[in-house]
Write a structure and sequence with these properties.
The protein is an alpha/beta fold. The strands form three sheets. Strands 3-2-1-4-5 form a five-stranded mixed sheet, sandwiched between helices. Strands 8-7-6-11-12 form a five-stranded mixed sheet, sandwiched between helices. A hairpin with a 4-residue loop joins strand 1 and strand 2. It binds adenosine-5'-triphosphate and fe (ii) ion (FE2). Fe (ii) ion (FE2) binds next to helix 3.
Amino acid sequence: MTISEPIILGLEGTAHTAGVAVIQGKQILLNESSTYFPPQGGIHPREAANYLAKQFPKLIEKIFQNLPFKADKIDGIAFSQGPGLGPCLRTTATVARAVSLKLNKPLLGVNHCVAHVELGRTITPANDPIVLYVSGGNTQLITFLNGRYRVLGETLDIAIGNALDTLGREMNLPHPGGPHIEKQAQRGKDLLQLPYTIKGMSFSFSGMVTAAKKLIANHSISDVCYSFQEYTFAILAEATERALSCTKKGSVLLTGGVAANAHLQNIIKEVANEQDSSYYVVPRNLAGDNGVMIAFAGTHLLNSGDILPIQKSQVKPRWRTDQVKVRWIP
Ligand code: ATP
Ligand code: FE2
């Protein structure tokens, strides 16, 4: 008799996106999400949390109406326990506890960054890659070593997505700025000079945003966008290349919201070629935050007996990638 893979409900809610999904093994059975776009400026944590509180009941109802089996077949409730915005995390944790109690199924506390990695390991052939995780809140080079995902390099201030969104706001582009900057950059011709801020394996972007803002007055938006992408992506490429070269891991996985950027994809693909390594990227529709990635990571937690008692389910807004004990990889 073969034991069937567990069925996991995944709840994502670290910042702007309420995501609810049901998976079994590597199969995505249902996936719903809803993303908050602030009317102006950046994301206000309390407003985003209010948005999540309104969206989760609707999304969960839709998922349960479409379940191809009875809800008691669900084996575990995975939720994004951190890192993220405190009010958003608390809202999501409250929803997860309620569903867990109602269905009497175990709660699984997932690290959001690890979930981005596990999504890539599940839906691409990448097994033990160098991970370039690029999003609005995080920018890290990650790889597995001795029971944990180690951070080989990371941003010392703001994330690449945050940098793109901040610059986008200065240029009156809609939020989030990342995809709009990508479009503008395609029309750029002149490479304008910016600082190149890499420090060992780590990097920083906030000074580059300040420098780019100063260029807006005298240059076209498309040239500023083009130059900003070229400089920041070159920094990410340099650190990724060094990580591949030093570790000889033989593959690279691009994940997180900014992984949707086609130009960054091409650059990292080239780096992988140069290093005789395989290149993988998560598909655009799953690059940003979603419930699927939380459910995939939750499967590993359940399979390794890592169940979270409700009384220990406080959220962890600053939970680092390298603090998670990865018991599911031998
Ligand atoms: P995390 O909590 O992992 O930091 P997040 O809250 O930033 O995640 P994601 O959905 O993973 O959420 O990433 C959103 C970011 O991705 C935004 O900064 C957005 O500008 C950026 N982004 C989305 N599409 C593109 C694109 N095509 N080019 C560049 N950036 C993009
Ligand atoms: Fe994310």
